[in-house]
UniProtKB/TrEMBL annotation:
Family matches, as PROSITE patterns: C1Q
The entry's keywords: Extracellular matrix, Secreted, Signal
Localisation per UniProt entry: Secreted, Extracellular space, Extracellular matrix
Bias kind Basic and acidic residues: ranges: 48-60
Entries under SMART domains matching the protein: C1Q
Gene3D superfamilies: 2.60.120.40
Compositional bias segments (type: Low complexity): 66-76
Pfam families: C1q, Collagen
UniProt cross-references to PANTHER family, sorted A to Z: COMPLEMENT COMPONENT 1, Q SUBCOMPONENT, B CHAIN PRECURSOR (PTHR15427:SF43), EMILIN ELASTIN MICROFIBRIL INTERFACE-LOCATED PROTEIN ELASTIN MICROFIBRIL INTERFACER (PTHR15427)
Natural source organism: Sinocyclocheilus anshuiensis
Cleaved signal peptide residues: 1-26
Protein name: Complement C1q subcomponent subunit B-like
InterPro entries documented for this protein: C1q_dom, Collagen, Collagen/C1q_domain, Tumour_necrosis_fac-like_dom
Amino acid sequence: MAFIFMSAHMVLRLIIMLLLVASSESETCDGYRGFPGRPGIPGVPGTDGKEGVKGEKGDPGEDAVPIIGPKGDPGIPGLPGRPGEKGDKGLHGAPGPVGPKGERGDFTGVDTPNQYFVFSYKKSPRAQRVNPDKLIVFDIPLISGAGDVLDSEGFFEVEKAGMYYISYHISSSQSACLKIQVGEEEKVKFCDSPGMIMVTAGSVVLPLKTGDKVSVQTTALSSIFSRDTDCTFTGFLLFPMNG
């Protein structure tokens, strides 16, 4: 505030003194002041520091409830898979109930009994285990007619030569291995052994001569049981032949 009230004469004297001081300082310097230098090149960045220690897991909040988002849209169905392997063959079912016994019919359309030959026998009701190569005896006739003759040993003896259809039906509790035989010659054999109750059958068409003996025999140990008409031995002439 004192500078403001100084006279013009005093101000002039102060300016001259300041100029003299400045000139005296400039005369003492050895050279002229140079231009500022260029900035230096930045240094290489330093390496990263070591990782710090992993912090401890925080405690879940007491009232924390997991948030479940909305169910997503179903994806695109994939291609069909390869077919699976074929399964094992199932077990034989249990035999069905025996049907009612039919009434005996009359043969018609023939002139004389000698024009047809048929036989059908059943086995007496009982259970038995039959050793190999043994005859199955069917001893109770089911029909009568020309040629329906079984001899005392249980063989069907042919009276009229021709082509015959021969069949059997057998009930078994474990296994049934049987063959249809003419005399001592085996014509066809079948074997079923599922280890359970079953009904098995076998049939064959054979040319037979007069006097041939047809039978059903075992080929292995067989467990056979019969009740009513579930064990039968049947045959009939298809057409006659010379012989």
